[in-house]
Amino acid sequence: MTRFVPYLSEEQIERDAAALLAEYAQARGVTIAPPIPIEDLVEKHLKLGIEFDDTHRLFGVPRSGLDPDILGAMFFDEGRIVIDESLDPEANPAKESRYFYTVAHEGGGHWRLHRHLFAKHPALQAALFEGPVAPSVICRSSQAKERVEWQADFYASCLLMPRRLVHAEWHERLGRTKPLLLSDLRPNRTVLMRAETLIHEQGRSEAEAVDDALFENVAERFARRFGVSRTAMRIRLEKLGLLLRADPRQQPIKGIL
């Protein structure tokens, strides 16, 4: 599928996500504030259906482990999103942030960025999936680095954590516009426990785990406000330059050191 998906800059993706929020605000007569009402935006503004199913059974793919590899799928022709039943927030409240992110990924990212590609390449759908049910896109965690999935993921982060609102929340909560440096932070018991989890669950080195846990400790209060996971919020804060691993003034100039 990669050859059908053109390169898009982060600026282009972020601009479209901001435009979608502006369209929704105007159409619904609301002011956009966190948490972004992603279900309302997708179902009532974009007119897409959202339903739950056992995605692995539906698409004939064996399920391994506790977490699904297939989080969701998009049917462009039908305007329908299918999300794995394990992410149903009513049955599993702990998965609510993952559910919202998947809705934004499918209904925001794929619908806005990739729908037109299938009209240009009608054979693409058949090439992606062979079986009794043929979705336009199957989203798998194991394929997150593919261009089509990365674009939809980044779109989801821009949609759920808009740049302007994140900066406003940063200023309101911390009373500053400047970023926080890793060297500004000190580990506490919560951070060290989180680091241990990252080491055991994700195989991180101790140094990487502590650094990420320090940032996620800051990100947690923002994550609750925006209805996303700590990890998603931490990545977004880093992308926006509000959490920095090193002081940019102390970075060596390329070609000199």
Give the arrangement of secondary structure elements.
Layout: H1 10-28, H2 38-45, E1 49-53, H3 55-58, E2 70-75, E3 80-84, H4 96-120, H5 124-128, E4 137-140, H6 147-160, H7 163-174, E5 180-181, H8 189-202, H9 206-226, H10 230-239, E6 243-244
Parallel strand pairs: 1-3, 5-6
Antiparallel strand pairs: 2-3, 2-4
Shape: globular
Oligomer: single chain
Query: Radius of gyration in whole Å, from Cα?
Result: 19 Å
Largest sheet: 4 strands, mixed
The percentage helix is 40-55%
Count every beta strand, where a strand is a DSSP E run of 2 or more residues: 6
Question: Total domains, how many?
Answer: 2
Q: Overall mean pLDDT score?
A: 88
**Runs with pLDDT <50, length 5+?**
126-132
Strand content: 5-15%
Strand order of the largest sheet: 1-3-2-4
Q: How many helices?
A: 10
Order of helices and strands: HHEHEEHHEHHEHHHE
Distance between the termini: 40 Å
- Helix- and strand-based class? alpha/beta
Structure report:
The chain is α/β, with parallel strands linked by helices. It has 2 domains: 2-160, no CATH class; 164-250, no CATH class. Helix content is 51%, strand content 9%. The chain has 10 helices and 6 strands, in the order H-H-E-H-E-E-H-H-E-H-H-E-H-H-H-E. It has helices spanning 10-28, 38-45, 55-58, 96-120, 124-128, 147-160, 163-174, 189-202, 206-226, 230-239; strands at residues 49-53, 70-75, 80-84, 137-140, 180-181, 243-244. The protein has a 4-stranded mixed beta sheet. Strands 5-6 form a two-stranded parallel sheet. Strand 2 and strand 3 (80-84) form a beta hairpin. It is globular, with a radius of gyration of 19 Å. The model is unreliable at 126-132 (pLDDT under 50).
